[in-house]
Amino acid sequence: MRGIVVIKCGGSTMEQLPDSFFRMIAEIQQSGKQLVIVHGGGPAINSMLEKLAIPSRFADGLRVTCEDTLQVVEMVLCGQINKWLVRKLTEHGARAWGVSGMDGRMISAVRTERPLGLVGDVQAVSADIPLTMLAAGYIPVIAPLAIASDGCEHYNVNADVSAGAIAAALGAESLVMVTDVPGILKPEADGSRSLVERTDAGEIDRMIQDGTITGGMIPKVQAALDALSAGVAQVVICRGTADDLLRVSKGEAAGTAIVAERIEAGL
């Protein structure tokens, strides 16, 4: 299905999202565009873990998740952030429906082979549930948790990875990753950093190797490349301002656009 835009809201941006963001989401939905929101919740999870004296650990930008941590992740993502987003969207005129990837086995996963504990690698995404919500006129708001195929274990899944997999399963026209930076920033000789407006897999590999892309941006671009390889037309990394969202919904440039293959001018 074409015409779907998947928006991933990072946990670090959640408290910074202005009312204009939610109003624009409502306006885009009312214009007929189908939207899906996948959200993170890192800072809120960290805060709750600190209150409960459970240490936070990360490896390569991904959260190491023990059983106690997973219980907190589930509580914060499903019980706090998911419903806050639904409430904010509803306040501004959107129709939203909050779920997690465990509901209806929407996201099935296997435990990652990396030493990250109860973290899942997405195995499959069932598009039936978000498509049913979209057909009924709702924005699915999805918390990135997954369940094993046998239903015996559940997993924390990186929100960027979840968003990429959901976008691919829905055949989305765009995946928009809302962050606290305007996009991929490249260092210049004078010490400043400039926005990379358009890039592709080859250039991203070079930027990871030379240290331009580091930390939490790495899983973002890797999820972006996976989504592109599965048929998503483009991935945009941006601040997610109302203007950014409007531009992306109209197919105009915003932030950093990652495409399957970049065509150089004059070639």
Automatic annotation (TrEMBL):
**Residues in the signal sequence:** none
Aspartate/glutamate/uridylate kinase domain: from which residue to which, for each copy?
Answer: 4-238
Please give the Gene3D superfamilies that the UniProt record associates with this protein: Acetylglutamate kinase-like
Pathway as given in its UniProt record:
Amino-acid biosynthesis; L-arginine biosynthesis; N(2)-acetyl-L-ornithine from L-glutamate: step 2/4
Q: What is its EC number?
A: 2.7.2.8
One GO term in the molecular function aspect is: acetylglutamate kinase activity
Biological process according to GO = L-arginine biosynthetic process via ornithine
What are the binding positions for substrate in this chain?
Answer: G41, G42, R63, N156
Reaction(s) the record says it catalyses: N-acetyl-L-glutamate + ATP = N-acetyl-L-glutamyl 5-phosphate + ADP
Site features described as Transition state stabilizer, chain residue numbers: K8, K220
What keywords does the record list, in alphabetical order? Amino-acid biosynthesis, Arginine biosynthesis, ATP-binding, Cytoplasm, Kinase, Nucleotide-binding, Transferase
For this record, the Gene Ontology CC terms, alphabetical, are:
cytoplasm
Superkingdom assignment = Bacteria
Enzyme's top EC category: transferase
Q: Principal localization?
A: cytoplasm
Subcellular location, record wording: Cytoplasm
* Role played: Catalyzes the ATP-dependent phosphorylation of N-acetyl-L-glutamate.
* Family of the protein in this entry: Belongs to the acetylglutamate kinase family. ArgB subfamily.
This protein is called Acetylglutamate kinase
Give the source species.
Brevibacillus composti
**Originating gene:** argB
